[in-house]
User: What shape does this take?
Amino acid sequence: MTANLPRVTYSNIGADFRPLHDMLDRSIPAFEQRWLGRDWSNRIAGRSDDEGRRYPVVSPIDHGLALGSFVEAAPDAVGRAVEAAAAAWPRWSSLSWQERLKIMRRAAELLDRRKYDLGIACLIEVGKSRLEAIGEAEEAVDLMRYYCDEMERNEGFRRPMGRAFPQEETRDMLKPFGVFGVIAPFNFPLALSVNMMSGALIAGNTVVYKPSPAAGLTGSLLIDTLAEAGLPEGAVNLVCGGGEVGRALVDAPGLAGIAFTGSYATGMEILRKLASGRHARPAILEMGGKNPSYVTAKADLATAAAGVMRSAFGLQGQKCSAGSKVYVANDVRAEFLEQLVALSAQIKVGDPRRVENYMGPVIDRRAVERFEAAAAAARAEGEILLGGTRLTGGLFDKGTYVAPTIVTGLAPDHAVNRDELFLPFLSVLGYDDLGDAIDDGNDIAYGLTAGIYSEDERELDFFFGRAEAGVLYANRASGATTGAWPGIQTFAGWKGSGGPGGKGGLGPYYVQQFMREQSHTIMRKG
Ligand code: UN1
Assistant: This one.
């Protein structure tokens, strides 16, 4: 039934997805019937574990839609999960890398077979549109396969070294650290969980995984899939819950390192903690973004308007890669804004289970409050060009929906232009000098993604040389700052968007961040 359906990536926006939508029309209700409203358990040492408080979760699409209940792991359960992962580590890490890859490739195969169900889980749980959700599921599969291929290309990160003497032989290798805590965010509950867990596991570490409290369903389905692939008991453990559980995990004795994707404040707290024990431990971090794009006087304005719109409002602006401000050359500002506002005004917001809706709800009430505060500031100190309001009436009253919003006239150092909002909220700034605009776009704590629109190669070169961010794009209609794909765009956060190592995910320098180096030198006789 699902063979030969078109593949969704975030950037193949022109493809014919009708067969996919036909399938989703049938599969979404079937998924709801089968999976919603259950009581889920944590998973420790291969067994269900219910130690802790049960909490119900509802969908942001409709608060009457019960996703299920999950267990906020008690501190003792978190400790047992770390112990279980530590007990599984000798076995998992002593497998040859080829044997580990066999299991991980089986996991990728299972993920691939279940990608539509897993995508639908994200859709209902987080409120992403159909194409964002299925794109994410495809990304997760590609991620796991790509990291397996990288391990193979690098021959398990083992290589012979030089000889100081003819009789001396040295080899260099990367080895796993031990137990990794993996703490994942709500916005890409599948792709980012798979990203961090597969990095850790392929490298030979074992894992205690904490999904976002808003995304326990996707997390639980994912863990079931990994268990079925034949990972040894305890190699992956699931503990649900919020910040308290995350803190218990970071503080657990026996933890070798943390992979975290989420807010800057939490990521920095984790980094400080991991630097303060008996010795420093690795923190592989992907944090926020305040991603600028630049539209120069030499831009194709239709392409620019499409790309800026998609990056600002795709997944309701809740991507760390979202484009949240755009600097426009004053010469073309009026014309660009006219196109951008006209295009964005056509966005349909509503139930993301339905094919016509490009935007679904934002994740929770706190997001709506943040939205209303930013809109009030823009109303008072600048100008609202589109949106600016919470949506009400019908389904909107049952969930958390806001209008795609474009504002202008706020000072460059206004909080709206400096802080990550994680909302469908775009601020427009004019500029006369591209260098000044890029410098201002750089003048933030973050450095994740940035984009430019210009038909002038010299301007593109200038941007690539000057922008302080790990992921740079030029002239993309499918997204000014979003849409990185495994094996194609690497995803390294500079400055406050990433950890101190300067390397990111989706590329050739990810898996080895989960490993430590060792050299073996043997002096032979004779
Ligand atoms: C995120 O931005 O939160 O590049 C994760 C993108 C996607 C998502 C990355 N690969 O937009």
Q: What stands out?
A: The chain has a mean pLDDT of 97. Residues 187-188, 319-321, 482-484 surround 2-aminohexanedioic acid (CB under 6 Å). The chain has two domains: 23-287+501-521, 291-485. The first strand starts at residue 38 and ends at 39.
